[in-house]
Amino acid sequence: MLLPSNRNPRLNSSINPRLNSSINPRLNSSINPRLNSFINPLLNSSINPRMNSSINPRLNSSINPRLNSSINPRLNSSINPRLNSSINPRLNSSYKGLYVFDLDNNILAFIVSVNDRIIHVFNFNNENIMYGVLHTRGGFALFNLDNEYIGHFESDSKSGFNQFDLDNNWVASVK
Q: Parallel, antiparallel, or unpaired for β 161-165 and 149-155?
């Protein structure tokens, strides 16, 4: 996948966490859930779907893609990149959505914003690999397609996010 240089962290130092300490949770404690309890789901129940039913798709049908067809890409073509070329970065060179990068800045996936609370993450085979539910701190609780809680996105203090697993290990950046 060829990205415009301004969207590519390998070419744009302002979105590269290795070169921009303000977006690197290892160097900026305010965006590191291990050091900031406000963004740590283990310490902040309002952002933990195991403790907050409003962000738990197993307990809230309005945010469960299996039970709400409007947020299910298999049933809603407008949020399915296989069926809607405007949200498919391989077919739309001016795609405005976010991308997920590993910690070596390799592109892994892209994000489709469904509404003001739900996002879906797709790999570049256009397979839905996870989805997110907005939590009270402006990040997202992440779920696999079986509605299991698998991690979270937290703000990188700029216009993106950092992805953390359930143990608050930094695993990816979202730009």
A: antiparallel
User: DSSP for 28-95?
Assistant: -GGG-TTT-GGG-TTT-GGG-TTT-GGG-TTT-GGG-TTT-GGG-TTT-GGG-TTT-GGG-TTT-TT-
Domain ranges of the chain: 5-174
Q: What is the pLDDT of residue 143?
A: 98
Q: Which residue has the tokens 């698998």?
A: 150
pLDDT tens-digit readout, 60-118: 999 999 999 999 999 999 999 999 999 999 999 999 999 999 999 999 999 999 999 99
SS3 category, 15: helix
